[in-house]
Amino acid sequence: MSKTVFMDDLARVHVLDVARRVGGKRRLREHSTVFISLDDAAPSVDVHLEHRACWRGGRQSYFICPTCGSAALILLFDPMTSRLRCRSDWPELRYRSQERGQRRGDVIANAVST
Questions:
Q1: What is the pLDDT of residues 86-109, one digit of tens each?
Q2: Among 17, 19, 75, 97, whose Cα sits 20 to 30 Å from the Cα of 112?
Q3: 0.85 cut: is pTM over it?
Q4: In the beta sheet, which residues pair with residue 63?
């Protein structure tokens, strides 16, 4: 039986946390790859960065997901595979609150139909 993994319980790495460690957003733009090490249990990973122009000016840094290759602000550690993944590569991942009973819309629809 597989254990259900919830987004709330996963270790995550945000691009802004990495920027703070390297000395700010401008310093982060000097890098094309960052080395991420979560803890002793997780393997260390080189993650590529992409820097895109924003529509209001400036630039935004994104991780390139090591699993699917899409741009992401946050990477999540998958304890089942010991890899970093982005949210778009993990469509079945849910928040713990989504598992507690029905959603509000479902309750309203059931009340109207009875």
A1: 888 887 888 878 776 555 555 555
A2: 97
A3: no
A4: 49, 72
